[in-house]
Write a structure and sequence with these properties.
The chain has 114 residues and is mainly α. The chain is built from 4 helices and no strands. α1 (6-27) runs antiparallel to α4 (74-91) and α2 (34-50) runs antiparallel to α3. 13% of the residues are buried. The structure holds flavin-adenine dinucleotide. GO terms for molecular function: flavin adenine dinucleotide binding; flavin-dependent sulfhydryl oxidase activity.
């Protein structure tokens, strides 16, 4: 595999991670159980500790203190992830993404075909 420059590798890692996060939120239960809510909250906090880019992880942890994960419903979780991604976009000088109808923008391809 060709060696990627640091900036390219960091950007690819970011794109993949955001894709996973937004797609997870688009499939998160509309009415989660207490256990599901705890699982999502823990997942996000563990991700912020273990994320391989140190600078990103540090910033993400600060963001989580200001904007704790919203786990009460699919819409709340999807909107939260979109808003937090926009905070990172803002910091990096990127465009702000339109969060309306965000779930439809992240299909998982896992709907059952009957
Ligand atoms: P990305 O920001 O990766 O977005 C990918 C695609 O998602 C976009 O093309 C667009 O279609 C869509 N999108 C954009 N905004 C949203 C949104 N708000 N909601 C839903 N979809 C959206 N990089 C750094 O250099 N410094 C950091 O501190 C840093 N922190 C990060 C923290 C986390 C938790 C993550 C996951 C990544 C971080 N990154 C950081 C990487 C950075 O956010 C980008 O992923 C990377 O720069 C590549 O950017 P991109 O322009 O390809 O689009």
């Amino acid at each position: 595999m060709a060696h990627l420059g640091n900036a390219t590798a960091k950007a690819e890692l970011g794109r993949s991670t955001w894709k996973l996060l937004h797609t997870m939120m688009s499939r998160y239960p509309e009415q989660p159980t207490a256990d599901e809510r705890t699982a999502l909250d823990q997942f996000i906090h563990l991700l912020s500790r273990l994320y391989p880019c140190g600078e990103c992880a540090e910033h993400f942890q600060k963001l989580l203190k200001l904007y704790p994960p919203q786990t009460s419903s699919r819409i709340a979780a999807s909107q939260w992830a979109c808003a937090v991604h926009n905070k990172v976009n803002e910091r990096l000088g990127k465009l702000i993404f339109d969060c309306s109808d965000i779930e439809a923008k992240y299909p998982c391809g896992c709907e059952s075909v009957e």
